[in-house]
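MODEL INPUT / OUTPUT PAIR
PAIR INDEX: 1
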Amino acid sequence: MIKTVLDDVKATEIRCIRVSAITAMFDYVMIATVESGRQSRAACEKIRDLAKPLKIKILGVEGLDSGEWVLLDTGSVVLHLMRPEARSFYNLEELWLID
């Protein structure tokens, strides 16, 4: 569902990393690049709309005001929507990928 929404709002460089073997806090980290705060807000709104009938709770959303880095938490999936500069600087993939 989240991947479909990200495709719909034209997010790029979408990455889904299974992290359940290294943390009990959530199962997946998703990271996607967005070009604007408007794009982040559209993605979050669509995810909320689709989650309701599926009885998926959105536990929290942070960063919508600036839109530079938005985090959406569903409990099992933590989604990071990041502007290109923030994504490059923080390089979250490196934190979660284990060789």
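PAIR INDEX: 2
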Amino acid sequence: MEIFFDLSAIPTNSPLLLGWWFFKTIGWIYPVFLFVYGLLLYWQFWIRNKYRHDRKYILLAIDVPKDNEQGPKGVENIFNQLAGAHQPLGFLDDWWTGEIKNSFSFEIVSLGGYIQFIIHLVDRYRDLIEAMIYAQYPDAEITEIEDYTKDWNLKFPNNQYQLWGSELKLAKSEFYPIRTYPEFEHVEEGFKDSMASLLEGMTRIGPGEQIWVQIVATPADNSWGDAAEHLIKKLAGGKPKIKKNAFDYIYGAPNLVLAGLNPVETAASVVKKDEPPTQMLYLTQGEKDRINAIERKIGKLGFHCKIRLIYFAEKAKFKKAVPSAVYGAFKQFNTLDLNSLKPDKRILTASIFWLKEFRLNIRRRKILYRYKWRGYWLDPGYEGYILNSEELASIYHFPVITVKAPLVRKTEAKKAEPPMGLPIEQMAPPVKIPSAPKAQPPENLPVG
């Protein structure tokens, strides 16, 4: 059987004719593919936006107990429960319903020095959030408020206000942990709350100034740590197992054929078989601790996170030292041997030389826009890096009683309750003991 290719129909005397011939034969497939692919992306964008518009978001202000003695462990338990809000997405979710993962924004705002803890969420999760908080902090007060960012539609350049902002990112792979709250515990001195420095810095501003701190957390799949296996084996001195795809098997087929023709083992292959799977016995203590820290991180529930910081004020009141104090509070979670949080230079409103003011104004608008929309526009795969529940609780938790930040909103009194042994059945009519009035947010925080 002979195979014959007729190449006489290919025009070779003109590049234009050659191009037209190629397009008529097989070249038309490429633009048609791009057109169909563009339609699919537009359809996905449309159904996701429809799904977003159908959801209702609310903000809950949390007044922490005044005599709180519970450390970050209580908030870690809250995050562990919140991981149950993770919803795995399938093919129909991506291309028919448009469903995306639900994100929760944990925020700390300082309005002229007054500090409030706030959670932004989809309204259907309100009962879940309240139940989790009351389970760990029975004396906390939860109030629904209006969005404090809605009236701040600042445009830059701006003659009245100046703004500094940034997103924080991890310096190394997300599998390396940052410093967490167990390392802030001292046997003799007790627990040194990591929130103290942040809250103290946020109280050092006055009227006309605001500081916003935001952590957008999206529950991750329980298998998020599986990808760390490659890194652990590499650090342990072993040979990581590399998953092969179809192309790897195609390219490796000649080697398999040659190996079958020459089955005699070489000296090199014998030596490789005798090598230990890892070099753990020869690692230093620091290298072993690094591996243990990674394994400890991936052993806990994870969240995709984006951390945003904003400080803005009237130009006459803007203090250049405030951004350093806010970001400095996050540097206490950094370690040189493991991981650290650092500003994302692509979004940071600083460190620009060419067209400085023009590019700074673009970044100011961008960080303010992203903060106000929280996780609203986060598409699957773009929710951010992974922090586990312990790391999140180290960064965001309610301060303990030893933190002396006077302007943090706290509950003033416990709710009055009847005694356990009170014979209610014999009382006619039953006496209703009034509860103490709920603490209300300040006048400059709009209540919904």
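PAIR 2 NOTE: The chain has three domains: 1-54, 58-222+301-420, 228-289.
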